[in-house]
Amino acid sequence: MLIRQATGILSAEITDERLYLRRREFLRAWGLAAAGLAAGGLDAYAQTSNRPPKLENVAKGPFGTTEDLTPYESVTTYNNFYEFGTDKSSPALTAGSLKTRPWTVKVDGECNRPGDYDLDDFVKPHALQERVYRMRCVEGWSMVIPWVGFPLGDAIKRFDPTPSAKFVEFTTLKDSRQMPGQRSYVLEWPYVEGLRLDEAMHPLTILAVGLYGVALPNQDGAPLRLVVPWKYGFKGIKSIVRIRFVDRQPVGSWQRQNSNEYGFYSNVNPQVDHPRWSQATERRIGEFFKRKTLMFNGYGDQVAGLYAGMDLRKNF
Amino acid sequence: MSSARLTRFVAKPAVFAAALAPLGLLAYGAATRGLGANPIEAITHGTGDWTLRFLLLTLAVTPLRALSGWNAIVRFRRMLGLFAFFYGCLHLLTYLWLDKFFSWADIVHDIPRRPFITVGFLAFVVLVPLAATSTAGMIRRLGGRNWRLLHRLIYLAAAAGVVHYWWLVKADISRPRLYALTLAALLASRLYVALRRSSRASSPVRPRASISTTR
Q: Which of A26, A169, B33, B172 could form a disulfide with A250 if both were Cys (CB 3.0 to 4.6 A apart)?
C-alpha cells in the first residue's frame, strides 16, 4: 500500500496554533450566543448579561444547602410566571413592563398593625440574608437558588396578628397593562396563595427581594416574593401587593383552577403523584439523569412536625 | 425536465430536507446549548409538536387537492405521513429514554394510569400499521379498498394526538385548541368535498362528475 506524504497543504491553510488552542473558547462563545438566541432573541441575551443592582449588606443565612447552584441564566430565563405568558421563556422577555417602584404592600385582615406599606419601609427593618434553597416545581424539575430575603415570620410579628388569624393570604399585583398575561384568562387573576400561620412563621419561610446577590429580576417575582422551600414552587407567589391575615383557609389560584390536582398544602411529596404524572423523581435543571424527589423537598427534619398526625394523601 | 422528473428529483428531495429541518434545529440546539435551561423538555415538546404538525399536514393533502385541483400534491402525502411517524417515534423515544431511562416497570405503570400518556401511546400504536403498509407492495397486497379503510386510522391518530396535548397542559389550552380547530377544519373540509361529490354524482345534469369518485 502506497502512503503518500501530505504535501498539498499550504502553510496559510494551517490554523494558527494560538487560535487552535483557543478553539474551545470560540465554541463556547458561539454556544452561548445560540443559547441567547434560542431563549428568545438578543434582547433576552442582553437582559441576562445585564443584571439588576447588587444588594448591600447581605449576611449568610441558615439552612443553606451545599449543592451546586443552578446557573443565574437558567434561574432567570426559565420561569413559570403566567402573568407574563405561559411559556417558560416569555417572562424573561416580557416582564420589563412591570414597574417595581414605587410599590405598596397592603397588610390587612386579622392583625393589629394593618396598613399600606411602601416597599422600602416594608423591607427596611429586616437584615437581608442569603438562603440557598432547593426549589421543586410541581412539573417535575428543580433548581438550587441562592435567594436573598428575610424570614416572613419576622415581618408577621411586626404586624401583630390577632388570635383569630389562622392563615395568611398573599395576592399578586393585578394590572394587565404591566402584566400582559393577565389579558387572557388562564388562571383567575390576581394570583392568590396561602399558608397556615404556623407555616408562615416557620424559620424556613422567607420573603425574597433578591437572588444571586442582586435585586430580584422582574421575571423571578420582583420586587417581593414568597419562598417556601418544602412546598411546590407555585406556592412561591410573586410580585406581592397584599398580605392578609384570615381565619379561614385561603384558596390558591391553582387550587381554584383544578382542586383535584393542586391542594392547599402542596408539600413536596414523592409518594403522592400529581394525577397526571409521577412526583417520585425530578430533573435538576442542568442535569441529564433524574434524581429521587425527597419528602418535603429534603426539609423534613425542619418541617415534618408541622404535619404530625395529618393524612398527607388527603391534605396534598 | 418533465413534471414527473421535477417532482421526483427536485420537489421531493426538497420537501424531505425541509421535513428534517426541525430535527436538525433540535440537534443543533442540543449540541450548542441552545435549547434553554431544560433541553430535554425542549426536545420532548419539539418532537411532539412536529408529530402533530405532520399529522395535520398529511390530513391537509387530500382536501387541498380536491378543492384546488392541484393533483401533484398527493405525491407528497406518504412522505408527510411517514415523517409524522418518524417524529412520533422520536417523541416516544424521548419519553422512554430521557424521561424514564428505560425503566420498564415505571413505563408499564405509567401508560395505563396517566390518561394523557395512554391516549398519546394509542396515537403512536395506531400509526404503526399505517407506516408498515405505506409501501406500493403493501397497497397492492391489501388491495386499494382495504388499504384505504385501514388508513382511515389516521383520523383516530390525529384526534388522539390532539387530546394527548390537551390533557397534558396545566392551564393554558390555547395551543392544543389551535390544533383541535385545525383538525376540525380539515375534517370538515373532507366532509364538504364528499358531500359536494355525492350531490354532483346524483345530479342528472352533470353525470360525468361521478368518474372522480373512483380515484
A: A169
